[in-house]
Amino acid sequence: MARHYPHTKRILVAVDCILFGFDQNDLKLLVTKRSFSPEKGKWSLIGGFVEEDESLDDAAKRILFKLTGLRNIFMEEVKVFSEVARDSMERTISVAYYALIKINENLKLSAEYGAQWFSMNDLPDLIFDHRNMVEAAHTKLKWMAKHQPIGFELLPKKLTIPQLRRLYEAIYKKELDKRNFSRKILAMNMLEKLNEKDKSSSKKGAYLYRFDKNRYRELLKKGFIFEV
Amino acid sequence: MARHYPHTKRILVAVDCILFGFDQNDLKLLVTKRSFSPEKGKWSLIGGFVEEDESLDDAAKRILFKLTGLRNIFMEEVKVFSEVARDSMERTISVAYYALIKINENLKLSAEYGAQWFSMNDLPDLIFDHRNMVEAAHTKLKWMAKHQPIGFELLPKKLTIPQLRRLYEAIYKKELDKRNFSRKILAMNMLEKLNEKDKSSSKKGAYLYRFDKNRYRELLKKGFIFEV
DNA sequence: TCAAAAGTGTTGACCCTACACCCATGG
DNA sequence: CCATGGGTGTAGGGTCAACACTTTTGA
């Protein structure tokens, strides 16, 4: 396209991804080893520049796919980071996106990026303002997990109530009463109980459930408001 | 700064402002008549391009100031709009900001922009994706007004409880019980009752109150959570 | 004197929290 | 047989919604 708005500076636009995962009891963050200047070799969120023919959402999906091979992942904008000097090389504004990833044996990370999971309780130093991005994303995650059933995006399709509770405890860094929690969750009537148990974390085993998206959509139509 | 990230397209970055006001019973939006191509002469949100030496927050403040002469106004990012073809001239990504403005006799709008207030219930057609921006901002406003005491930004410093209730009714398009509303608001203990009445909307007159920011900050420290 | 908005209390239903014991099983 | 985590019920307090009449005063 021709330039019809003269005398205005065009700017580099990037997307940086805050990739959350959940593993046993820990909320985790996937970070990569930066392979180019500046700050080469340091820990960094995975990111990339926005191309001419893609929206920011598309750019975020592309970047996520290159690292993880995953598509159709829950992903959402957090906010824009636009301080003039935030990138030491050239002015770049960056839009932070967070994504919720199921960590499991099928997840194959591209070796290219030297990616590694870190516990949110024990993050390494990150370049630029990436630490602020992570904070902002975590704040948004807390908000969202409270008011929308996105926690399930971090768990296997078949999940147990104790697992879900441990996830919320990790997100909020706060213990929850197991009786009250399971009553509240089951009362919403969004989980389908299966005739299987998961014995990976106890001898007795915990019943498996499946989040029923259709039932949730029905509830929404009736004015139901999710809240944990 | 030199270009250190080669082969990447730089992009025009704009800010568009969703300016909310409140007048009697109506939530209002300030829109301008666009004075340049494309779409010259049509109704548009006020906006502008981001300059080299400013953050997006700064750009939004600058644009607001040029139109209204106001500073220190509540203003917050909504989200980025980045569809490739959203601007018909040249690819532009735009970050929507919303602001809350007190409409009163001191407000002097720059004549340059042909600005006009419209009721949110009766908006004109807007250019590009500006209507979507307004929807997104309204959604965020509903969210914020419920969980933070930002409603006061739309009202005079001295306000009455019925006025505040009408504001919330306008934001949520829903009637509220006046007894329950005033009990809830006063119970929060954030309003200082004055010995004056406002008779502009009734013969009996309603007591004026002042929102006490310091008291609110104290409450926050004690773990108080605002919710309407 | 009347119309129009302000102000004010109570009750019942529901919801949320706090809390303790038994169950199933693998080792 | 025992250690570990899973599963379950109840009672009390607090919160929220629903509801109607009186007050004030300008016109």
Percent in helix of chain A: 25-40%
Query: Beta-sheet strand percentage of chain A?
Result: 25-35%
Given as residue ranges, the uncertain stretches of chain A (5+ residues, pLDDT < 50) are none
Tally of helical segments of chain A:
5
Task: Look at the structure and give the mean pLDDT of chain A.
Answer: 96
User: Mind describing the biggest β-sheet of chain A?
Assistant: 7 strands, mixed
Oligomeric description of these chains: homodimer
Notes on the protein architecture:
The structure is a homodimer of 228-residue chains. In chain A, the strands form two sheets. In chain A, strands 1, 2, 3, 4, 5, 6 and 7 form a seven-stranded mixed beta sheet that branches. Chain A has a three-stranded antiparallel beta sheet with strand order 8-10-9. Chain A is globular. The longest helix of chain A is centred in the middle third of the chain and has 18 residues, at 130-147. Chain A has helices spanning 56-68, 130-147, 161-172, 178-187, 213-221; strands at residues 12-23, 26-33, 43-44, 46-49, 74-81, 92-101, 116-119, 158-160, 191-198, 206-211. Chain A has 228 residues and is of the alpha+beta class. In chain A, a hairpin with a 7-residue loop joins strand 9 (191-198) and strand 10 (206-211). The interface between A and B is medium-sized, with 34 and 34 residues. The first copy, chain A, binds a DNA duplex (27 and 27 nucleotides) through residues 160-162, 177-180, 182-184, 197, 199, 201-207.
